[in-house]
Every structure is written in C-alpha cells, then in structure tokens.
Amino acid sequence: MPSEHLPSEHLPSDAPDPGPQFERRSLLRLGALLAAGGAAALLPAPVAHATTRGQGTDTVTTSYRGHSPQGTDQWAYVAFDVPAGVQRISVATTHDAAAGILDLGIFGPSGFRGWSGGARSGFTLSAADATPGYAPGPVEPGGWSVVLGPMVGAAGGMAWQVDVTLHHGDPLPRAPYDILPTAVAGRGPGWYRGDLHLHSVHSDGQRTVDEIVAAARQEGMHFIATSDHNTSSTGVTWRGNVPTDLLVINAEEVTTRHGHWLAVGLPQGEWVDWRYGPANPGVFESHARRVHSLGGLTIAAHPLTPAAGSFWEFGLDRVDALEVWNGPWTLDDAANIAAWHVMLCLGKRVAAVGNSDAHSPADAVGRPHNVVHAASLSTPAVLDALRLGRSYAVESAAVTLDFTARTGGSVAGPGEELPLSFFDAVDVTLNVTGAPDSIATLYTEWGIMAATWIDGSGRGQLRWRGWGKASMFVRAEVRRPKPASTTLDQLVAITNPVWFYSAQLPPYDVEQRVLFHTARRPDGAWSSMRPLPGAEGAGSFAGVQSAAAGLPDGSVVVLGIAPDNGLWLTTVRGSATLQPWQRVPGPDGSTGFTVREADIAAFPDGTCQLVVTAMDGTTYHQLRRADGGLPGFRPLPGLTAKSRWGATKVSITAMPDGSAQLLSYGTDGAMYHCVRGRDGTWTPWGRPAGYNGAPTFAGPALAITGMPDGSAQVLAIGLDGIVYHQLRRADGSWTGFRPPRGVTTPTMGASAIGIAGTPDGSAQVVAVGLDGRIWHNVRRPDGSWTPFAQIPGPNGRDAFPAGQVRITALRDGSAHVTAVSAG
C-alpha cells in the first residue's frame, strides 16, 4: 500500500512520539526504581496471542500479550511470520508506565532493522521510509521478531501488549542514502575540534541530523559523530544533506544493561549488538574486535554514572578511550577522572575524551568536546589521534591549550612519548587561553606538581621542571573554582598525558611502588631499609606518598596514601609494626575518603595533628589523640570569612609552644603559611616571598619543620626543579630562600624532599636527587651544611631508587625516613 494511504499514526516522523520521553541521563532518575528489580534471566517472556483482525484484507493486525517480571536485564521476543506481498510493517505497544520502561526494536530475516528503546511506543518501516530509529528497506517474507527490553521496577512485574500490523500492497521504491565522505578536502595536519557523542531523533534525541550539523557549526566544531542508541538507522538516512565543511563520522552508542559504549567510525549500515553482559565471557571483546576490524574506535561512555544499566562493568582497560567528561560537569565526571588517573598510574595508556552527549536543543553541542591533533581532517586520522590520546578536552571552542614537554632537542605533546634517560631534566609548559578566573594544574602519578591562577584575561602559563623517569607521565587540568550542580568546581579543560617512558626502561607499575622505612641512629649509622607490611594482610604497603611523625615514646606514626588515594595510618617502633594499618575516615565518617596529599606532626603530649588535601582541593585538619583516637577532619579556614582553604600541597610541623605551623601551595600555585595556636585558632594565611626577589614561591614540593628555639625551617622545590631553603624566625620574619649546594654541583636538583628539626638545633634533610636516589645531609645550628651522602638501600649497600621521601626526628637525636620506591 502506498504510504499516502496509511493512517497518520503510522507515518514516519522526524520527532519522537508524544508518549513518555526519556531525556539525557534519564537512567539516573530511574536508578532507585530499577535497582530493586535486580537482573532477570536473559530468556524470552511467555507470549499469548490475541485475536487477529482484518484477515482477508490488505491490513492485518495481530495482538500479542505478555508479562515480564521485575528486573532490568531481560528481553522478550514476539515472533511473527510475514507472507509475500507485505510492503510495510507497523508496530504499536502499550504497557503500564508506572511499572517501568518498555524498550522496543525489531529484527527481520536478514537481521537488525531498528531500535528506539523507550523513546517510542510504536514505529513503521518499509522499503520507502521508516520511523527514525528504524532502517528503511524491503519487507522480506519470513520470520520476524519484535524485541522488547522491559526494565521493570514493580514487584508484580509488567503486563504489555504488542500490535503488529502487516500492510499489503504494491511494491514501494527503495530509499537510497548518500555515503558520508571520509575526509574534508584541503585540511592537512592540525588541531581539530569535535564532539563524538550526539543523539538525534533516531533514538531519544530531539534534533534532526540537519539541526545537529547546524549546532555543530555554530559551536565551532570541525567533526562530529552521530551516536544514536543501538541503531544503525542514522547512517542510512543521509539524503542530499551531507555537509562539505564538517566531517561526519558514523557511530553507535551501544547501550547494554551493564554500561554504554561508543562504537565510533562504523561503516554506514553497520550495527553492534547490545544484548550481553559481563556474565557472557568474551562477548564484549568480540564486538570490540569487530569494531576495530572495521576501522572504528571503542569508548566507554559516562562509565561511572551511578545508575542501573549505565555503570560500566566490562573493565575500564578494555576500551580505546574513556569518556571522562560527559555533558555538564558533575560529580560522576570527577569520579571518572579519578579512576582514569589511577589507570595512568598503573601504566595503562587509555585515552580520555570529553563529549556533550547532547539530546535536546537545550543541550549545547560541543560542550564539552575534544581538540585533536590529526594528520588531516579525515575519519581515519581523527580516530588514530584519539586512540593515541593526541587530544585534550575543553568546555567550549573559546578554550585553547598548548601543552608540551621538552628535553634537549626533543618535544612531545599529549599522547606522545618523550625519549629520556633515567633522570634527564624535562621542562613542561602549559599555555592557556579562553579560561578566565580559573586554576591550571599539572599532575604526575605523584600528585599535583604545580598550579597557577589564571586571571580575568583568560590567559595564563604554567611551567614546571621534572626529572624524566622520576615520573612516568605529566598531564594538565584547568578548573574554575565555581560550584556546579553537584561539585564545588567546574572543569574547563583536561589533557591526555605526555609519557616519559624510554625504550630502554620498562614501564612503571604503581602497585610495585612500595613504602620503605629506615632509621638514622644518633651516631649517624643507618639501619637496614625494609618495606612496611601492607594493609589487610598484604605483604607490603603499595603507595604513592607517605609522611611520618616521631612520638615522645620513641614510636613513629606513619601515614600512607594507597594507589586508590585512600589514607592509611600505622605506628612503628624500630623494626616492629605496633598496630595494623587503619584506614582514616573522611570528614563525614566515610571509609571511602580519598586524598591527594597528607602530612602529620607529633607534639610532646603524645598527640598528633593531621592535614590532608581532598580530591577537590579542600584542605582538612584533625587531632589524633594520645590514645590513637581520631575525632574527625574539619576544613581549614580560607582567605575570607566562611571560606575553606584549597591547596595542592600541604605540610605541618609542631612547635615547642604547642602551636602548629602549616605550609601550603594554594590552588593559585603560590606558597602560603599560617599558624594554628594552642587554643585551636588560626592566623590568616600569608605568602612568603620567592627566591631572588620574586613576589611568590611556587613549585611541586614543600616541607616545614619546627626548631627548639621557636623558629621553623622550610624546604621547597621550585618550578626550576632546584631545592631551596629558608628560616622563619621566632618573631615571624623570614630570611629568604637560598639554594643549598648539591652533591657535585652548586645547586641541588630534586624531585622529592623532607626536613626534620632535631633537639640539638640542627635539621636533617632528605631529597630524591637527579639520579633517583635518596640523599641526606644536615644543616648545623650555625647555618653550615654537611655534604650530601647517599642513604643505603635494603641490603645496606646499594642505592635505593625512590620517588617520594619524608623524614621525622625523635628526642634521642635519631631520624626515621619513609620512602616510596620508584617501581
């Protein structure tokens, strides 16, 4: 039957049905309902036939009724036969909307023909046209199946009905479609902007593809990928509207019940199945291999969205890239970045991307999007660059980054590897434009190395000198300290890392970075360096940072930050561990509290004070009672009334009068100092001057220690990678920074430092030098320095390669060193 004679409710439409709509991230709103349902078996639900109407006419309708139990992981198949002469199939469904969602699709004798999920309650398809989400094509005689995906929250299950109408008539002409070009002519090597996650009316979006193209142009995109849910129909409906100035990449968002993933770069008409889970071994991997064989890219979409069906369960390292930023910045995006950072620390080179996931006209295309350095503006070149991480993500086209690392004559950008010897100097530079009132930050696996404030002009530069394989990568972020819907800040930009691997050196594994302990006796002899036993029965404590404080009874309280950024605490005396590791709870009592930095100071009464910077930069403080009790963290006051202090690095020391002095790099990158009085009050934060007349001091590391005379000594590493030292006199004045002499050079380059004052008025210093070894020296009470000497390794002879080091002193003049091995 020609389409003009069909009832209007069966005609294809460029907009979804007016029934229940499921907007962007709708599963978040349904999570509580569906979580109670669990996972039902992947078995067809029982189906009962109702009466067939219209037999002997050109329009025959058969109704099928069924019932699905409570659960989210189930499919129901309504099988029916199509005789020769049928030109169109129309399907309509009804169900109790209060019981849940009824996803909808169809398969024909040759396979997949369409899917609309829960966005539609019906569709029609023929050779000439089809409802968006369904592929036009001949209606083949043979066995067909309507596939239903009931997501049922009601305890009593869900009843549903499917009406299948077969329209007989004269053959309809086939609908041709245009082939999308694989390249935009005349565009060679360069940086290109694009959004890989966009939804149209072919799934649950509200834009046509023409409207998506127009919105992409308006936002300054060079390429887009149309990635509708579980359907190939978008790719086969381009007719006379393919843009010549914008690269369109065909894609699909594969929406399983166990996480969503983007198959980007599929040939038009190709379709990827979604009906499987982690309980089906190897199935996801087989689909990913097929996508790769077709030249495509696999991306885990919004992997840590805490909703039924959205949370990624197939393994974060089994895809080419992670969508760490999905649409407007939220708390689950922050969780994505934290998980991705841990993967980088494990040496897993999985690229990060940011996409808008735009569904409605209210969702801005390209916010966020990726800026990719590709050999050309072509699908193969863009996908290759994304796979390698030759990209960064930004909030809008107003933001541009220039992020490089240099050593000698070599330079590398995001996703590239810089060839290095073990501790070659590496100069990292980040130039930012278009990001007013924000904070730029550099990260390695050791945490934040440097930060700087970008003023209202939106332009800023951040420089840092690292030491090659002292870190295995460096990456950058730009954030705006302004609350978003669920966070205290907003992400402006994030880069993929520059890698510092060398072909001659194996990659690091953070799980092999073990926390070691050694002691220096008052006579200057060192005890054997040994690993500390691990938490929860592990043979050793794997960590990324440590801190230590010597108590009056001769024991040492040790803090360790694990690879997952959890904060742990134990006590040692000599070679004995006095108590098991205890996970330190967060400000709200949560045992899942994670931190970037931590330090601890011990007082004569047996108490300790802890300071930490949380993952969002907020700095917290708490007392540890003499009996070991932890009453809880409280935020440090900020620069203004009722504000909280934010920091990238923090150090604390105990003073003879019972006060504590804190040293910190603020979120603007500058060094700050304050005092906590014995009564618990805080002085305002003040900024010490920098070296050689500079107004401020900035760098990747700092430490402070109190002295018996009421002064304090500060040790810090500057952005040039050099160690600097100064005194804060008892009257609060500063002597100014000076660089101590190095091992064989006029200055000391280092990647980590520690300082501890001893009862005789001297200060003991430790540093991880340019050779990756731990070095020790003493600043005498008269201001002179002993030469640096290497601390022996675990066998008492060989040097010990380390990535982070801290030192604390005891009353008897001994000193205890904690160090994290460099892999």
TrEMBL record:
<feature type="compositionally biased region" description="Basic and acidic residues">
    <location>
        <begin position="1"/>
        <end position="12"/>
    </location>
</feature>
<feature type="region of interest" description="Disordered">
    <location>
        <begin position="1"/>
        <end position="22"/>
    </location>
</feature>
<dbReference type="InterPro" id="IPR006311">
    <property type="entry name" value="TAT_signal"/>
</dbReference>
<dbReference type="InterPro" id="IPR052018">
    <property type="entry name" value="PHP_domain"/>
</dbReference>
<protein>
    <recommendedName>
        <fullName>Polymerase/histidinol phosphatase N-terminal domain-containing protein</fullName>
    </recommendedName>
</protein>
<dbReference type="InterPro" id="IPR016195">
    <property type="entry name" value="Pol/histidinol_Pase-like"/>
</dbReference>
